[in-house]
Amino acid sequence: MPVPKAELHLHIEGTLEPGLAFALAARNGVDLPWTDTDALREAYRFQDLQSFLNLYYALMTVLRTERDFEDLADAYLARAAAQGVRHAEIFFDPQAHTARGVGMDTVVEGLWRALGRSQERHGVSTRLIMCFLRDESAESALATLDAARPHLDRITGVGLDSAEVGHPPVKFRAVYEAAAALGLRRVAHAGEEGPPEYITEALDVLGVERVDHGLRCVEDPALVARLVRDRIPLTLCPLSNVRLRAVDTLADHPLPAMLDAGLLCTVNSDDPAYFGGYAGDTFDAVRDTLGLGPERLRELARNSFLAAFLDDEEDRRSRYLAEVEAHVFP
Ligand SMILES: [Zn+2]
User: Fold this and answer.
1) Residues known to be catalytic
2) Cα(328) to centroid of ligand 1, in Å?
């Protein structure tokens, strides 16, 4: 039995497996520059965040219709359920689609076709979080929030992702203020490749409740103390950190030290089709490579539900937490 858990850092476009990419390319008449899935797999040797992003954006051009987004999300939810995910908070990148002529309506309604029936079909509750691309302009982010207004009943919060260095959180102050005024929850990627100051800025300027990655907080003891004191969750993605070279090997990952420091860490899969593992695979990897024992694994599972946006459904959170406490770790 896999550990019951919530997935809080998952880009739906990052779940596009080579097989589905080729199927959608055929369905939509899109020519991909790779001859087959083996050739495509060869392209998955990344040097850094940017080399991954180049492939990520190239491949998502196969996503065109509501049905494509539905199939993508449904395939992810089936995989997640099989790996013990009970609740998934799913990021999507509307600008990556609207920039190539695929409308916000197509993206949100397509995803919702899968998310709206996920509870009954897969036993997974869901939230949708709209991310702004930080390497695009602040104006583009504001226009994106505006385009999302008719869909806000489907969208729980906003996030900030893509190429981090050189795009500090402060650039997005206005759109985060507007999102807060609309009652949206706020998260942001910070401290993945960018410096610890970006984490502080995401908290102080953007008002985020949760930090995505946050890995580089370990370089600033005062920041660590603040994150511990204020119980700010960090959505770590250990397999992603290895693939994108934020750490040399998984054995070098600071997760055990971060837990020892009292940080509210969660582990997540980020872009699992690209980084070699879904939520359950990630739990297995940190258990096997970092030597985390049953109580640490239980803490990670518990943290995932404590950090989830389930405030309006405290019953559900309680049920999930009870499941974690009842889980027998081998
Ligand atoms: Zn991410």
Assistant:
1) 192
2) 30
pLDDT at position 104 is: 98
User: Do 199 and 168 meet the contact criterion of CB atoms below 8 Å apart?
Assistant: no
Residue 255 buriedness (CB in 10 A; 0-12 / 13-18 / 19+): buried
Which H helix or E strand runs over 129? strand 125-133
Q: CA-to-CA distance for 71 and 131, rounded, in angstroms?
A: 20
Q: How far apart are CA 238 and CA 223, in angstroms?
A: 20
What is the amino acid identity at position 241?
N
Exposed e or buried b for every residue in 292-308, given b needs 16+ CB within 10 A? Answer: beeebbbbbbbbbbbbb
Place of tokens 């899968």: 114
For the chain, the C-alpha Rg in angstroms (whole number) is: 18
Please give the single-letter amino acid code of residue 299: E
DSSP string over 49-109: HHHHHHHHHHHGGG--SHHHHHHHHHHHHHHHHHTTEEEEEEEE-HHHHHTTT--HHHHHH
Query: What's the rounded Cα separation, in Å, for the pair 238 and 213?
Result: 9
d(C-alpha 190, C-alpha 54), whole Å: 20
- For residue range 80-120, list pLDDT tens digits in order: 999 999 999 999 999 999 999 999 999 999 999 999 999 99
Closest CA to 5 of 280, 265, 314, 316: 280
Whose CA is closest to 214, among 205, 224, 225, 222?
Answer: 224
What is the 55 CA–ligand 1 centroid distance (Å)?
Answer: 15
| pTM of the predicted model as reported, rounded to 2 decimal places | 0.96
How far does residue 212's CA lie from ligand 1's centre (Å)? 7
The CA-CA-CA angle for residues 70, 71, 77, to 5°, reads: 90
Question: In angstroms, what is the span from residue 270 Cα to ligand 1's centroid?
Answer: 5
Alpha carbons 210 and 135: distance in angstroms, whole number: 21
Residues 6+ apart with CB under 8 A from 83: 2, 278, 279, 280, 281
For position 49, what pLDDT does the model report? Answer: 83
Please say whether the beta carbons of 325 and 295 come within 8 A: no
Question: Tokens in use for 71?
Answer: 């199939």
